[in-house]
Structures are given as C-alpha cells and as structure tokens.
Amino acid sequence: MGKTSKVVVCGMKGVGKTAILEQLIYGNVNLKSCFYPTIEDIYVANIETDRGTKERVCFYDTAGLEPPLTGELKGPPQSPTMQLTANQVLQRHYLGFAEGFVMVYDTTRPESLDVLMYLKKDIDRNKDKKEVVMLVIGNRTGPDDVNSLENTCSKASNWCAREKIRHFEVSAMDRPSLYEPFIFMTSRLNPVQNKTTFPQLSTLSKLTQKNNKSEAM
C-alpha cells in the first residue's frame, strides 16, 4: 500500500449511500438498521484490487442531494447551463480533491437516477479537466413494482453505456454484492506501474556502455 485514494460517494438523499459503506466496511447492516441523514462522514478502509493487493481508500459519504426538478417537471437534464441550488449539487471542495466518484441511485425510485444525470454533468463541468474514475451503483432497497424496477435499471444501463461509465446493481443488505464495484474502483485508481520508470535513462545507459566498449577496442 502506498497512497490513499480519495473517493466521493454521492447521490440523492435516502438511496442508501451510508448503508452501502457501513455494510462494505463493517458488515453490520440489517433490516433493522437505522441511519440518520448524512451531513458528511469519512470512512477509511483497505480495499482489495483485482490483482489481490490491498489499497487504502478514503471514502467521503456526502449529504444526499435534492432532485433538481419537482412537481410536474421531472426527467433528465435538458440544459447544461441550468442553474441548480446548493442542495442539488455537490459541495465544490469535493471536486477539487476527489479521484473517484461512486454515484448511487435507488432502483425503486426513478427520480434518483435523474439526479445522477444532473450530478454527472455538474462533475464534468467542474472537475478542472483532471481524470477521475466514476461508477454508478443501483441499490435495491426493497420490493417494488417489477416493471418499474426493470425500467429504471434498463434506463440506467443505457445511460451508463452512453457515458462510458461502469454500472453495477447491488443490495446494501447483501455484502458480497458490494465487492465487485469497489474492487473495480480501487483497481482503476491504482493501476499496475510500469517497471521501467525512466526509459530514457535506461536507453542512455545502454548507449554509454556501447560507446565505452568501442573506445576500448
């Protein structure tokens, strides 16, 4: 383990962000668990990568966002210049240091997916052109209309495919279902390093050795 990666967990209020982190790290979430609305919490954990190594990750559990549109005006963002209020966007300081974003929606609440569409646009506009890792998690929070659930998940999959973001469906009640998305995130944040860190110096060394041999002859 070397650096500590910084990952922001975000989404609409009440979609299970805190429950996902508590279950992933501590495994202490059940149907009787109760969580108060989050202002900001920080979790630090050693998460496995797809190479079997463990890396330290700092997760920032953020306050839930309000839907950008209410009443009859619902749906995905239409205008990239749309003005959102403070409780509809991430606080600006997260965009300055985050290396990864885990965006969570509730598979039984279509409006929570709409929030992520606004959120993704806001992150893209304000992340200072740096590369970040993003993924989307659909949290199955309970039984609901099957057709509605399938429509929401299908819409999410199609949107993620267009945005080139990995999409995962999980349940905060099922700890093993959480492993894959967080292993994926940690692996992307900690790629395999090239063994030859200074290729130019290596080439220069070989040329120097060759010239020395020529002079000796």
UniProtKB/TrEMBL annotation:
Key words, A-Z: GTP-binding, Nucleotide-binding
SMART domains reported for this sequence: RAB (SM00175), RAS (SM00173)
PROSITE patterns named in the record: RAB, RAS
Signal peptide: none
GO MF term set: GTP binding; GTPase activating protein binding; GTPase activity
InterPro entries listed in its UniProt record: KBRS, P-loop_NTPase, Small_GTPase
A Pfam cross-reference name: Ras
Family matches, as SUPFAM superfamilies: P-loop containing nucleoside triphosphate hydrolases
Any single GO BP term: Ral protein signal transduction
Protein family: Belongs to the small GTPase superfamily. Ras family. KappaB-Ras subfamily.
PANTHER family: NF-KAPPA-B INHIBITOR-INTERACTING RAS-LIKE PROTEIN (PTHR46152)
Protein name: NF-kappa-B inhibitor-interacting Ras-like protein
